[in-house]
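To make the argument concrete, we let one protein speak, a sequence paired with a row of structure tokens, as a model reads it:
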Amino acid sequence: MPAPRCTPRLGPGAAAAAGLLALLAGSVASGTALGGCGTVDLGDNIVPPDLRLDEDFFYCEIQPNVLTAKSCAGGGSGEGGMCHDSRSALVLVEPMGGPPECADGVVTGGTIPTDYMANFEAIRFTVQSDPLSSPLYRRPTGMDSHPRMIFPETDPCADLIVEWINRGAF
């Protein structure tokens, strides 16, 4: 009688299951696979767990020290900024007010401007759990498609983005 097969059925978007496949392949190759194993159905829409982004750090550090400081939504015309006010898939709002009161990346008082909240909601979809793979990091540093390099990988803005994403990568 042939040994039972433990072959996962993969649907579209199943690249996220590569780790599981490697584990299964390793256990089969080493002979540690459980006998009588059935088929593992990973489904058609594998969704990674949500990344929990630190909103306070965004409001205290990312918005004022990266987005506003580098004129992502406002500033001069052409190469001087304003790319994300309307000419991009990522639309940002130029904040009308300053940041709330903060200490060590935590909101301690004041009111969070609605523009900051709108930008957080827009940005969160450009963030991945690995900061160095995240479009929010790769595009302004010139590593991926972007009209211009906003800052190099060695810039404190790049460090802030990495720190922010790492805070949410549980």
In short: Helices lie at 18-29, 55-68, 114-123, 135-138, 156-168. Residues 55-168 form one domain.
